[in-house]
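TICKET: design request
STATUS: open
ATTACHED STRUCTURE:
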């Protein structure tokens, strides 16, 4: 019985917590958000069997679709899908510049960070890029200072992969350490967490240092409470819109650690993806 429930939850996560398998699904979701005045991020996850060329073409299509459409959105890229190919990276960088949209680099496994920095430093305009930094990696504090030197927009996340050097890093404490390293920056810092206490403390530290910031939330996870917190803090909200055929952004193991997330999934099993949109619409109406 338990196994069947987890299998159902896994399938629901794959459908309810991504916009859909294709770019058209993500664009439909992003325009729905834009109609409610919510900025967005488009984040594609390429399946393992997809070629780097095909993954790059999906991102090129996203930049082309967003060019001149008047919405507030940018494109997040997982460089693993491009196989860290410098030529494809250059194509996407040019497309981003041509569309007037930021290309943001998602955090991957720790062993990919040096490859990522190699592409950033070889970019024609590194300051036009964004980078996600996980709190659970010790190196992220140094990477935050490096990002300041380059002029990158940074998204701070807890991180999915543990530190290969020190697996005992506390993600929340590390998150705040990265925030402190970025405090005082003139560039935008995105605080990407649904943890209300962590969101509030991060924003308090950044705004005290006069650093512009926003809350970046994941489409499908509980929206109302962090949205209210962001409103109290006087910062904008952005929603990350995942799409692709690889499933949801968080593992089912999260159910064991976070009962509130488990309850959210139970509701998804009963109500489906429409619950996400109902929650966003109700929350926006109250803000």
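STATUS: resolved
RESOLUTION: sequence designed for all positions
ATTACHED SEQUENCE:
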């Amino acid at each position: 019985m338990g196994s069947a429930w987890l299998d159902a939850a896994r399938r629901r996560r794959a459908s309810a917590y991504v916009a859909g398998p294709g770019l058209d699904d993500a664009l439909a979701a992003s325009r729905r958000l834009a109609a409610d005045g919510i900025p967005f991020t488009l984040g594609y996850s390429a399946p393992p069997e997809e070629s780097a060329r095909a993954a790059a073409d999906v991102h090129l299509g996203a930049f082309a679709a967003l060019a001149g459409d008047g919405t507030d959105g940018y494109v997040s890229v997982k460089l693993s899908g491009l196989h860290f190919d410098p030529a494809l990276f250059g194509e996407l960088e040019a497309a981003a510049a041509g569309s007037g949209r930021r290309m943001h680099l998602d955090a991957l496994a720790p062993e990919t960070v040096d490859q990522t920095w190699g592409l950033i430093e070889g970019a024609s305009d590194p300051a036009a890029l964004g980078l996600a930094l996980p709190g659970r990696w010790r190196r992220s504090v140094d990477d935050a200072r490096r990002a300041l030197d380059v002029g990158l927009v940074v998204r701070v996340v807890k991180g999915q992969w543990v530190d290969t050097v020190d697996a005992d890093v506390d993600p929340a404490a590390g998150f705040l350490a990265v925030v402190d390293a970025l405090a005082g920056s003139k560039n935008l810092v995105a605080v990407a967490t649904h943890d209300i206490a962590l969101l509030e403390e991060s924003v308090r530290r950044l705004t005290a240092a006069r650093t512009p910031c926003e809350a970046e939330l994941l489409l499908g996870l509980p929206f109302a409470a962090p949205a209210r917190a962001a409103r109290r803090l006087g910062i904008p909200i952005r929603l990350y819109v995942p799409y692709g055929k690889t499933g949801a952004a968080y593992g089912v193991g999260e159910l064991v650690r976070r009962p509130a997330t488990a309850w959210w999934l139970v509701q998804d099993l009963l109500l489906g993806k429409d619950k996400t949109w109902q929650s966003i619409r109700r929350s926006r109406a109250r803000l």
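CLOSING REMARK: The chain is about 50% helix and 15% strand. Confidence is low (pLDDT under 50) at residues 250-257, 259-272.
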